[in-house]
Every structure is written in C-alpha cells, then in structure tokens.
Design goal:
rod-shaped; two-stranded antiparallel sheet; Outer membrane efflux proteins (OEP)
C-alpha cells in the first residue's frame, strides 16, 4: 500500500511538475545572463557632453551665427546712405584760324592739344531715424543674438533634467533587478527543497504549489523590472546620444 502511494505521487510529479522544472531552468539561465551583462551607466558629465551632439543644438548654433551676421550688417548699415561717384574723360581739341589785312597776306594757323579730365565725388543722405535710432537698432539685433543663445541653454537644461530623471530611474532599477535576481534564486532553491520533500513524502502538494506560486511571482517581477530597465536605458541613450547597451 505504501509503495502504491509513492508510485501515485511520482506519477503526479512527472505529469504536472516536470514542465515547471524545465521552466525553472530557463528562468535561472535568464537570470544568469542578465547578471553577466553587468550594465554600467556612464558618468553624467559624459552624457551631458554627448547630448550637445544633437540636431537641435546644431540648429541653435546656426541660428546664433545668423543673428551675429545680421548684427554686423546692422552696424554697417550707415554705409548704405553714402554714395561715391567718379568720372574720367580723355580727348584732343583742335583750332583752325585765318588772318589777313591790307598789309598782311592771308595766312592760316592750326593748333591742337590733348586733354585729360577726371573727377571724384561723394554724397551722403541719411534719414534722421538712422541717425537717432541707430543705437537702438543695434541693441535690438544684439538682444536677438542673446535670445537665441538663451534658447539653446534652456533646451540643454531641459534635456539635462530629462537625462537625470532617466539616469536615476535606471540606477534604481539596476538595484531592484539585482535584489529581485537574488529573490528569484532563493525562490528556486526553496522550490527545489519543497519538491524534494514532496518526493520523499515529507510534504504535501499544497506546500509544493505554494512554493511554485512564489517562484512564478518572483520571476514575473524580475522580468517586469528587466523590461523597465531596458526602457529607461533606451530613453537615456536617445536623450544623451550615447550608446549604453552594447
């Protein structure tokens, strides 16, 4: 009768728990792989510097250069109201004349000469608004340069805050994942002990089932934290323009 009970228990074990044992081995393997990766977060300073290699930052830099160029043009705008003119002419003039009187026979004379003529002049016509408002126009353009620079600084500060948020989240999840990995290993050990007790007739199916639920719950929490960590690190990679997961 005792042998029959042991045979029934072994049959139940083979039917219902061998698949779970295979699952347990897969979970343990997954846990080991995660630990072997040893994900290390770069220093925040490195992430901040890499975040500057961004299309938005490049846009603000180009816009700043454009505003600075406009400022130089504004400072030289007074030259628009000054005009310079010049001319040059070259030619040859000739004069023919004749003369006679009662005592002088008719005679002719001819004279020619080469001539060069040139001139240089300048004129200035400036509206009064350009005279009295010039300083304000230059100041306005200078403020436009400063505004663009402040926009870039504000964007970088906002990006740094997002990087810090993702960074601290990833650090927290790394610690949680480590603890949950240890909890999963402990749950595996407890489950194996409960299974051995059940096989040896020292426990009942209910206790073995309870240990299995604990093991599954630990695994589910471990996987969830693993996915949350992956999401946080991917967000950090995008925000900082830095490759973290190799």
């Amino acid at each position: 009768m005792i042998k029959k009970d042991i045979y029934i228990k072994l049959t139940i074990l083979l039917i219902f728990f061998l698949p779970l044992t295979a699952l347990s081995q897969e979970k343990t393997s997954l846990s080991t792989n995660v630990n072997d990766q040893e994900i290390q977060l770069p220093p925040l300073g490195t992430l901040f510097e890499n975040a500057k290699k961004n299309a938005a930052v490049e846009y603000y830099r180009i816009k700043t250069q454009e505003e600075e160029s406009a400022l130089k043009s504004e400072k030289r705008r007074w030259l628009d109201h000054i005009s310079i003119n010049s001319g040059y002419q070259w030619g040859k003039s000739a004069n023919t004349s004749s003369f006679s009187d009662e005592s002088t026979p008719l005679f002719y004379s001819y004279n020619d000469a080469a001539q060069n003529w040139y001139y240089v002049g300048a004129s200035m016509s400036m509206p009064l608004t350009q005279i009295f408002d010039r300083r304000n126009l230059i100041k306005k353009q200078s403020l436009a340069v400063q505004a663009t620079q402040k926009e870039m600084e504000r964007w970088l500060n906002d990006r740094k805050l997002k990087i810090v948020d993702s960074y601290t989240t990833a650090e927290e999840l790394l610690l949680i994942l480590k603890m949950q990995s240890e909890s999963l290993s402990f749950a595996e050990a407890q489950y194996k002990a409960a299974k051995n007790d059940f096989v040896n007739g020292k426990s009942n199916p209910q206790k073995l089932n309870d240990q299995q639920k604990i093991r599954v719950s630990a695994y589910v929490e471990f996987i969830k934290s693993k996915q949350d960590l992956k999401k946080a690190i991917l967000e950090l990679e995008i925000l900082s323009n830095t490759k973290i997961i190799k």
